[in-house]
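DM between two lab members

TW: hey, do you still have the Carbohydrate ABC transporter substrate-binding protein (CUT1 family) entry open?
JB: yeah, one sec
JB: this one, 427 aa:
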Amino acid sequence: MLKSSFLKAVAATALTVSTWASAHAVDLQFYFPVAVGGSAAETIQELTAEYVAQNPDVNIDAVYAGSYQDTVAKAITASRGGNPPQLSVILSVDMFTLIDEDLIVSFDDYLTSEEDKEWLNGFYQAFMENSQTDGKTYGIPFQRSTPVLYWNKEAFKEAGLDPDVAPATWDEMVEFGKKLTKKDDSGNVTQWGVRIPSSGFPYWLFQGLAIENGVILANSEGNQTNFDDPKAVEALQYLVDLSTKYEVMAPGIIEWGATPKAFFEGQTAMMWTSTGNLTNVRDNAPFEFGVAMLPEKVQRGAPTGGGNFYLFKGGSDEQNQAAVDFVKWITAPEQSAKWTMATGYVAPRPETWETETMKQYVEGFPAVLVARDQLQYAKAELSTYQNQRVTGIFNDALAAAITGTKTPEEALKEAQQQADAILTEYR
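TW: and the structure you got?
JB:
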């Protein structure tokens, strides 16, 4: 009887403590986007739930906020309305916009110990180029990527090409593309050689061509662009020529979202898209495929891409510290490995690739290493102050050249003039 009473008392005390802890838990709201196919949203929810289960003194409301563009718009609107999320994954290129709007705080304020600083130095430097400015860290890499080239091995074999060898240069991409482009008896193309999307955020894939030709489109301070550099003009002329001169790519604007489906259905033998689509391609391609670094001109090169964690103003120190702890947990090796396997995004810390989980995954799916290995040639994604305006101008210039309403030189010269008019005040 005495033992029973004692156990009841212990249970009651535990329930009281649990109730008190729940009532006094730190509440966090976390916005996240999903811009590619696959099980990304489900994986984020699972990881968040796992963290909360391990940390009952923290409640996290993980809100799927739509596309990257939707997410940054919602985060800005909520902040202006006095109800910001404590944490959000937003494109790395939006860092200058968020700083300019005075909406985010530096992670350095909450990463003060030597151990914290060592952790911060543990990310791939290529990803940190879009995460730091003026000596401060505003973004923590999470769902980061680079574009890569995917190819249909069956189509290569049918065209008399080595199915295990991708084009390594611009010239080879044209040469392969000509062999891969197929027409029916009426002269209609049934399979294009290559597909490089030019809708959505065309500047990103074009930036791969620019870097490969030796030009960086914006400086690290986010206040100067090089849109009209002759090397950029040459890169844009090559992109246009793929359709008009070499006839290995469909003419006009090519849709980003429809590109993986076109690849699966045999409408194109090669495609450029994000490594964030890797799991989607693995799960849905009805043929054996390969993955390669982007082909070079004067050098290898690709832009980094994808989203960072940002810490928003308006939270208490307790909330911000809890948010930072969550970021450290979710980017830790085992969680990061789970995320990479679910999505194809590049695990942003070398230590993740050393886990047994990732080693086994890589052994069965070596294509996942391509984007990681390409990081040694990668450069920061185009990012400036008033980034959406500036990239909008640049995207319009690309569209004008692709659709033939302006020459590449005319389009990029006008884009540079318009970008200068916006960015002069930030120099």
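TW: got it. The chain has two domains: 27-145+305-372, 147-303+386-426. Residues 154 and 287 are 7 Å apart (CA to CA).
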